[in-house]
Write a structure and sequence with these properties.
Blueprint (H helix, E strand, L loop, with lengths): L8 H12 L29 H16 L4 H7 L2 E3 L7 E3 L3 H14 L2 E6 L2 E6 L1 H78 L1
Antiparallel strand pairs: 1-2, 3-4
Length: 204
């Protein structure tokens, strides 16, 4: 079985967001239509299903970096704000969105609170790990199968491309060999004719 490290993160998040739409606990609030994801953003997200995409991304971050809290995740989803002629500064992402997403994931049973020494925050559960790993395994299988099939096809295409080149090269070789033979025959004939002419002169 594959893990989230065996596939492309963008593809994993895209497929996980589609699966999260089936989970009842994960739902976009009413204000998600017009809200911005941070102070650094100029407009709200253009995608209608951005909430589930962000939820899948947060779940992946908890899987990799857990235990992790809202503050660190705000840094992750922050960015530089365009301040016109002034120098741009980094601003953290919206804490309210991340907090709400973590609450929903905890309700769904994908995330839980844990304290491991100094670090405190959310950690992925067995259910959450299985959820992401199962999606990752399907992606990794899809990636592996076409590669095996594509190899012979590529080899065939390469052979077909090289065929006319080889044929041309062989033809050139045949022509060059023929011309060499013809030149030799001509030279032999010319030498024989010259010898035949010079023989009566020698006799005289």
């Amino acid at each position: 079985m594959g893990t989230i490290y065996d596939c492309d993160p963008a593809e994993l998040i895209e497929k996980a967001s589609g699966e999260l739409k089936k989970v009842e606990a994960v739902k976009a609030p009413t204000w998600a239509v017009f809200v911005k994801t941070g102070v650094h953003k100029e407009r709200p997200p253009f995608r209608n299903d951005w909430w589930h995409t962000r939820t899948a991304s947060v779940l992946r971050q908890v899987y990799i970096k857990g235990p992790i809290g809202v503050s660190k995740l705000r840094n992750k989803y922050g960015g530089k704000k365009n301040r016109g002629v002034k120098k741009s500064h980094f601003y953290k992402g919206s804490g309210s969105i991340i907090r709400k997403i973590l609450q929903q994931l905890e309700k769904a049973g994908f995330v839980k609170k844990e304290d491991s020494g100094v670090h405190k925050g959310k950690v992925i559960t067995k259910e959450g790990k299985q959820f992401l790993d199962s999606i990752a395994s399907t992606i990794s299988i899809q990636i592996q199968t076409p590669k095996k099939e594509a190899k012979p096809a590529k080899e065939k295409a390469a052979k077909e491309e090289t065929k006319p080149i080889k044929e041309k090269q062989e033809k050139k070789k045949e022509i060059s060999q023929k011309t060499k033979i013809e030149i030799k025959e001509k030279t032999i004939k010319e030498t024989k004719e010259e010898e035949a002419k010079t023989e009566p002169e020698k006799k005289q």
